[in-house]
């Protein structure tokens, strides 16, 4: 089995056990809850796909997740659909076991399993990847700092605005008032942080399709906040893409979204929303900071 580094951009091939002269695609396995699918999940899948040629993602059922870590926010059907919409995913396995085994990898002809560099435990407090690790069929990729499902839930509950992009004064918004609505320290959890995530140009390039529309293509444009990217967004973008050949999505800035939605919206800042939308397989291009009126 050959694998490139998580940040690689090519293909790796493994020799077929039946024919030493014939090379077969490297099949990569990932699994997880993939609850409230965000750009951190997408980045993990992007890195995993870069290690091989064909990416299979196993997703746990609501029952399995509840038994091992508590109930998920989204249903399994919603989570299946969200992961299928991620551009680097080739196949989704529904109802994958919570504990990853050699038998699972063999069943789907996968060379190895990929997970981020954090530890996932089962209900008994044991590493869910212990079997594939012991067999040497486990690889790690980098976890995306600054975002998690827990963090996003925390932002909704704490009514914070500190994750919004700076520069609110340009839009006539008082930055001191915009920082936070709730001053009560009892509402702040030590387990959630406020993301100041800023993507590099390299990260945007990695998420981008990088293709221009072809002559004669019918170009479709839609715009909005696309906050907390979810199955409703996926359904909408799928239908929008079906109207043409090349789909461009305009994303409003944080101050603009806050102006028309109020409260602590958007929950995810502009940079985070850009990567979330770019990860969708129906999207060809994103306009960052699109005007509210078109």
From TrEMBL:
Membrane in keyword set: no
Entry keyword Transmembrane helix: no
Gene3D superfamilies: HUPs
InterPro entries found in the cross-reference section: CCT (IPR041723), Cyt_trans-like (IPR004821), Ect1/PCYT2 (IPR044608), Rossmann-like_a/b/a_fold (IPR014729)
Pathway: Lipid metabolism; Phospholipid metabolism; phosphatidylethanolamine biosynthesis; phosphatidylethanolamine from ethanolamine: step 2/3
Coiled-coil boundaries: none
Origin: domain of life: Eukaryota
GO terms, biological process: phosphatidylethanolamine biosynthetic process
UniProt-listed Pfam families: CTP_transf_like
Ranges of residues in domain Cytidyltransferase-like: 29-153, 222-292
Region annotation (Disordered) ranges: 1-23
UniProt GO MF annotations: ethanolamine-phosphate cytidylyltransferase activity
UniProt keyword annotations, A-Z: Lipid biosynthesis, Lipid metabolism, Nucleotidyltransferase, Phospholipid biosynthesis, Phospholipid metabolism, Transferase
Entry EC number(s): 2.7.7.14
GO cellular component: cytoplasm
Recorded family membership: Belongs to the cytidylyltransferase family.
Cross-referenced PANTHER family: ETHANOLAMINE-PHOSPHATE CYTIDYLYLTRANSFERASE
Protein name: ethanolamine-phosphate cytidylyltransferase
Organism of derivation: Argiope bruennichi (Wasp spider)
């Amino acid at each position: 089995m050959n694998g490139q580094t998580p940040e690689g951009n090519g293909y790796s091939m493994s020799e077929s056990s039946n024919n030493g002269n014939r090379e077969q695609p490297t099949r990569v396995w990932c699994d997880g809850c993939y609850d409230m699918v965000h750009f951190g999940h997408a980045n993990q899948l992007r890195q995993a796909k870069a290690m091989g040629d064909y990416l299979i993602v196993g997703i746990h059922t609501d029952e399995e997740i509840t038994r091992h870590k508590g109930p998920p926010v989204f249903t399994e059907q919603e989570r299946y659909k969200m992961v299928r919409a991620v551009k680097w995913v080739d196949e989704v396995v529904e109802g994958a076991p919570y504990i990853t085994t050699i038998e699972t990898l063999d069943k789907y002809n996968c060379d190895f399993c990929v997970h981020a560099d954090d530890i996932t435990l089962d209900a008994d407090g044991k590493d869910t990847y212990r079997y594939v690790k012991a067999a040497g069929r486990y690889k790690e990729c980098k976890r995306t700092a600054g975002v998690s499902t827990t963090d996003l839930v925390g932002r909704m509950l704490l009514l914070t605005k500190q994750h919004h992009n700076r520069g609110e004064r340009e839009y006539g918004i008082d930055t001191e008032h915009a920082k936070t609505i709730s001053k009560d320290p009892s509402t702040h959890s030590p387990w959630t942080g406020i993301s100041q995530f800023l993507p590099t140009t390299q990260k945007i390039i990695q998420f981008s399709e990088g293709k221009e529309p072809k002559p004669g293509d019918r170009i479709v444009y839609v715009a909005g906040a696309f906050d907390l990217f979810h199955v409703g967004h996926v359904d909408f973008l799928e239908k929008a893409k079906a109207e043409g050949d090349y789909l461009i999505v305009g994303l409003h800035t944080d101050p603009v979204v806050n102006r028309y939605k109020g409260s602590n919206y958007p929950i995810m800042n502009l940079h985070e929303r850009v990567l979330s939308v770019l990860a969708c397989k129906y999207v060809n291009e994103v306009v960052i900071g699109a005007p509210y009126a078109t």
